[in-house]
Amino acid sequence: MVRGRPSEMNRVAIAAWCLFDWASSAWPTVVMSFVFAAYVTREVAPNSDVGTAWWGTGTAVAGVVIALVSPVVGAIADRAGPRKPWVAGFLVVTVAMAAALFTIRPEPGYLLQAVILAGIGGAAFEIGQVFYNAMLADVAPRHMLGRVSGWAWATGYAGGLACLGTCLGLLVLPAQPLLPLDPETAEPVRATGIVVAVWFAVFALPFLLLTPDRPARDQPFGRTAREGVAQLRRSLADLRRRYRRIAHFLIARMIYTDGLNTLFAFGGVYAAGTFDMGFRDILMFGIAMNVAAGIGAFGFAWVDDWLGSKRTIVISLFGLMLFGGAALLVRTPTGLYVAGCALGTFVGPVQAASRSLMSRITPDAVRTEMFGLYAMSGKITAFAGPAVVGWVTYLAGSQRAGMATLLGFFLVGLALLWPLKPAVDMGEPKPA
Q1: Residues 227 and 242 in one domain
Q2: pLDDT tens by residue, the chain, 432 residues
Q3: Cellular component terms, GO, for this chain's entry (predicted)?
Q4: Which domain holds residue 57?
């Protein structure tokens, strides 16, 4: 095989693996970000403050479940062998929850049901990602980990936006939806859950059918589970010694991911409060940032394999701080659009390169388990960013001051990541 070019079989597996990102991104984009979250908080809840509190609580509880469950099921999967059955199982749960969202009528009595369905679906989605991410090193040649991770992440942004465009164009925005749905009971909006369910299920099929997987171990599941939990205990006990570099990276990622997650959560709030943007303007701003993030993930995919995963993350964090600062200084919506899109260009690369770096430094025998810890590191302190932004905004009486704290998360994450020296097994080029 020529270096840098996968075989024909690998091309099929890589394409199918990337397409899963296209399929799965429908859930976070349509349900958790743009459509259903807004519907629940604005039309199902008695008022937006109550809706935001309930939705935020449900998301927080789901985050705790993800943090606690992901390492355990990851460790069990490493002992069991195949990863795709786990992906398929959590996919089924996510799809079922998405379809069930159609039952949520615009009445306060449905608020708890909406939060429970979204919470279960969100937890299942994130836990399923543990097994999907762990398969990167099985699908992509080592010298292409950065490109494949970046291509998949860019494909995910495109898939999420394509599903969103389908939902908006056919159901939500037209005065007369394509299907005979009743706007009085918000059926066009509720039907977006069914679109997400079908989208996810259909486009995930190539991944389930065409990507390679590990063979199953011939032993009872109970024994496999006990071995997996025991292995997780040993790994946690040895994390600072045997897996010290992984622990170091996960701590750094935990901090800068808090900044990223809070940026996603408060970006629309900042645009509305500081620049007086309406719903449609915020929607277009969010779409523009997602397009920029997808372009960045795709373009930096080559940088990841050329300069290394760690250096790609470092460059991206510098970019986030630079253009994040610009977004805090601009005074017009146009300026925010420009700064926001430039900022978005570095959001995709830092996420994609973090996944490829984790794949590079993790031993195969515990890869799914470690990706469980990777998922945990993205959730365990997820309360910190929103809390800091909220309280600083309140005490300073300024959204700009609150959002400025995100630069601190990126700076601390960068400072923690910096001491990790470039090495071949971290995806960095050999020193000259």
Answers
A1: no
A2: 334 444 455 889 999 999 999 999 999 999 988 888 888 888 898 887 788 778 878 888 888 898 888 888 888 888 878 899 999 999 999 999 999 999 999 999 999 999 999 999 999 999 999 999 999 988 988 889 999 999 999 999 999 999 999 998 888 888 777 778 888 898 999 999 999 999 999 999 999 999 988 887 777 778 778 877 887 787 777 777 778 888 889 999 999 998 888 887 777 768 877 888 776 787 788 888 889 999 999 999 999 999 889 999 999 999 999 999 999 999 998 999 999 999 999 999 999 999 999 988 888 888 888 888 888 888 777 778 877 887 888 888 888 888 899 999 999 999 999 988 755 444 454 433
A3: endomembrane system
A4: 7-234
Task: Specify if 272 maps to a domain.
Answer: yes
Burial (CB count <10 Å: 0-12, 13-18, 19+), residue 170: middle
Residue 257 and residue 207 in one domain: no
Number of domains in the chain: 2
User: Residue 320 and residue 347: Cα distance in Å, rounded?
Assistant: 7
Report the amino acid identity of residue 167: C
Residues 346 and 416 placed together within one structural domain of the fold: yes
Residue pair 231/75 in contact (Cβ under 8 Å)? The answer is yes
- Asked which of 213, 234, 255 is the last residue of a domain, the reply is 234
Of 175, 209, 234, the domain-final residue? 234
> What value, to the nearest 5°, has the Cα angle with vertex 125 and ends 297 and 352?
15
Taking the C-alpha atoms of residue 359 and residue 367, their distance in angstroms, rounded to an integer, is: 8
Answer yes or no: are the C-beta atoms of 144 and 6 closer than 8 Å: yes
Closest CA to 116 of 106, 103, 129: 103
Identity of the amino acid at 122? G
